[in-house]
Specification:
Blueprint lengths: L2 E8 L4 H14 L3 E8 L7 E9 L12 E6 L14 E10 L4 H10 L10 E6 L1 H8 L6 H12 L4 H11 L2 H25 L3
Parallel strand pairs: 1-4, 4-5, 5-6
Antiparallel strand pairs: 1-3, 2-3
Helix pairs in contact: 1-4, 1-5, 3-6, 4-6, 5-6
Length: 199
Amino acid sequence: MLKEFKLFGRGGQGIVTAGEWLAKAAALEGKYAQSVPSFGSERRGGPSQCSLRISDTPILLKFSVINFDQLYVFDPSIWKYVNVIAGMKDNAILVFNSRLSREELEDNLRSGKYGYTLEKDATIYTIDATGIALEEIGRPITNTTMMGAFSAITGLVSLDSLVKIVESGLPGDLVEPNVNAMKKAHEIMKREVKKEVPA
């Protein structure tokens, strides 16, 4: 089954790299995957997004994701300025890097106070990815942290595969802190997902 994802944030947060690494991790596990970057502005801090597709069968589509199953917002504030939920499918999963609770963030999205309104049903998760990145890596680069969250929520790529990709993609001194950030996010989101499963 084909699943389509949108990764959204600002330039410099490693969104394009995250898309590439998630696709590589999926391929390691025998899946078909495709990463398509898109830039709203060619500058650090400008809006940046990446489309990601993962499937059990070959992917014939060659364009950015239009209607997504899941959204991952890497930046804690960009959703206040850009309609990040445009194109979401019914019952989509929305994952935000935010210190707000899930309920607070949903209230914000449904209020229309930022110029757009969440009207469809959705499952919302929040995680303080910036806080984790600062604690483990020492910099507010949230890509590996959000990759850990992605693994826990989707179950489409394992933490082991992501660790292998990070080990091959980063200089040696950066591997351990990034892996630690990824593992911490994975553990946090795994607990949150478990809450959604009926007893």
